[in-house]
Amino acid sequence: MPIDIDQRPIILTGDRTTGPLHLGHYAGSLKNRIVLQHSHRQYLLLADAQALTDNASDPAKVRRNVLEVALDYLAVGIDPDRTTICVQSGLPALAELTLLYLNFVTVARLERNPTIKDEIQTRGFGRDIPAGFLCYPAAQAADITGFKANVVPVGEDQAPLIEQTNEIVRRLNRQIGRDVLPEAQALIPSIGRLPGVDGKAKMSKSQGNAIPLSATPDEIRDAVRRMYTDPNHLRASDPGTVEGNVVFTYLDAFDEDRAAVEDLKARYRHGGLGDSVVKRRLEDILQNLLAPIRERRTALGRDRGYVLDRLQAGTLAARERTQATLDELRDGLGLFTFDVARFEMHR
Hints:
Number of domains: 2
Number of helices: 14
CATH architecture of the largest domain: 3-Layer(aba) Sandwich
Strand content: 5-15%
Distance between the termini: 43 Å
CATH topology of the largest domain: Rossmann fold
Strand order of the largest sheet: 1-2-3
Structural class: mainly alpha
Order of helices and strands: EHEHHEHHHHHEHEHHHHHEE
Shape: globular
């Protein structure tokens, strides 16, 4: 007997709309989302409001990429009949939840969050931290709890944000005297963050070290040729190092023939295997992976009305759900609700 969809665990995930998605997103999250949409009630958030926390000077970029990221979702196999794809800025309850939660967390606690501390240092903000960026843990808590998510897929570096969300949940539940909000579990993927083709820890389109999901055959070929390998592996006969070798990292992520990959690693370590041989294998795998995604994306791009219709339907469904959570929370806390239509206040 099939499980009723309303009884399945709720999962919330999403992406900032700052640019089209790339292979790092595919390996780290998109592959899992395609599978999870069959076993969970999955909400996929196009986080345009969050993207403004460090892109407020270029709102057009954020708006433009809402559709670009949505195209990537649909092209890789996210099914809008199974996954509710919604636009964050179209969910006003999330903004009100964020404002509410900021009363239940201190600035000191926000600054101690390891994820935020690392990002502040990486971006060189110093004390000139955008307030929206500093308050991101409260905003993410609003996103997660607004949908009453039980599971949130995140990278290991993002786990402290889930921990802080659960701290806010526990404090609110204690204040209300019953469990209105569920705690969320972090789902950390088995594949860690995929490095850029230049060997840098983070793949980023702005750094020119990413392979977008819409990459052409020539772009894929050029990216693989530029991939960082072992700088001491000067000749095919030289023993090579696999650890930190980007080509082998990508093979681990995308080559389904595990025995063949392990054989290549052994031959490379021993000496007698050139970088070009390994790169050709990787290029073939990536060409086969991305060709159908690129074709579907191109076809969807010709029917943007369909994409916008699915975003509208998903956002309206998500608005209803998040508003219900806000109403329940306000009622539990004993706050006034203001009915504009009736011009009355109700307790």
